[in-house]
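[step 3/7] inverse_fold.run input=structure_tokens len=317
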């Protein structure tokens, strides 16, 4: 089902983490399609362009506020993660306690409120580990090298258990590296492209671990949110890679950003990190077929759009 055909009129959607980068774009997409949206956040103060939301304050780590967020909801989008791949190995116990245990508590609350559908954002960049072939399909072995990826895999397994034993419908989206759109929290940027652009705009040097040959799959935020909306149009549970299906090295990304901005990047290369996989590109054919979805924005197009928005947001120009 294409994103244009997805109507959510009368559907109550709880978006956990709806105030973050991905969450704010998703909430706007849901509102535009008629959904009634609740945003669950520690401090739900984000503004949404397409309509009103019901803010629910709570802490995912201890489960406070989940009861109010889930009561009467038809579907849950679970976008919350308290860690990122680059820091998760520093405190794997905290990673498990906040993200895995928090998700198990969520699933218990969903059972209590008889919420039978969830869309979970997993990680297409970490759950596979060092891939044995490219592009990587959903059937590739899962051998993550960081706690972040291990917890994502564990959550996926628990979701499958609840599907089999409790009748839950779970759509797992293994997302590549999103970028673009409006930045809500400029002090908490994630991902190479947002960080690179901010540093280039500020005239700061960019640190790259390794020689810049690391290859990643990047997806423009509008393509990602379209896939997330399409996920509600598919019947049954499933796991889907969501990316562009095209790989670019960090050095290639820098070349594109320099071309788009007209700014020459100042780069400092450091020793590579052991948990970084050398190359990852996602096979997105399953999502294209089952969701009726297509990633239509090239990296150059997406970076151009992002640069235009970032300049307006940062300088007003």
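[step 3/7] decode complete -> sequence:
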């Amino acid at each position: 089902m294409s994103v244009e055909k997805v109507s959510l009129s009368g559907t109550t959607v709880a978006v956990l983490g709806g105030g973050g980068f991905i969450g704010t774009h998703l909430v706007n997409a849901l509102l535009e399609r008629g959904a009634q949206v609740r945003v669950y956040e520690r401090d739900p103060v984000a503004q949404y362009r397409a309509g009103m939301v019901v803010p629910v304050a709570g802490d995912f780590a201890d489960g406070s506020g989940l009861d109010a967020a889930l009561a009467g909801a038809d579907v849950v989008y679970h976008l919350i993660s308290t860690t990122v791949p680059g820091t998760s190995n520093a405190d794997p116990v905290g990673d498990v306690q906040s993200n895995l245990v928090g998700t198990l508590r969520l699933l218990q609350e969903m059972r209590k409120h008889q919420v039978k559908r969830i869309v979970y954002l997993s990680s297409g960049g970490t759950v596979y580990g060092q891939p044995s072939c490219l592009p990587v399909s959903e059937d590739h072995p899962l051998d993550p090298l960081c706690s972040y990826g291990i917890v994502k895999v564990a959550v996926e397994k628990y979701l499958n258990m609840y599907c089999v034993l409790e009748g839950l419908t779970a759509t797992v989206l293994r997302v590549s590296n999103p970028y673009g759109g409006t930045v809500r929290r400029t002090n908490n940027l994630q991902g190479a492209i947002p960080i690179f652009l901010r540093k280039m705009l500020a005239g700061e040097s960019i640190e790259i671990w390794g020689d810049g040959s690391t290859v990643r799959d990047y997806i423009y935020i509008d393509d990602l949110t379209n896939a997330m909306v399409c996920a509600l149009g598919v019947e049954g549970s499933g796991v889907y890679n969501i990316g562009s299906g095209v790989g670019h090295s960090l050095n290639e990304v820098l070349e594109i950003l320099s071309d788009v901005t007209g700014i020459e990047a100042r780069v400092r290369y450091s020793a590579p990190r052991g948990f970084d996989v050398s190359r990852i590109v996602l096979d997105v054919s399953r999502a294209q077929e089952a969701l009726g979805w297509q990633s239509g924005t090239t990296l150059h197009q997406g970076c151009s759009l992002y640069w235009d928005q970032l300049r307006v947001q940062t300088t007003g120009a």
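[step 4/7] annotate
Residues 21 and 183 are 6 Å apart (CA to CA).
The mean pLDDT is 92.
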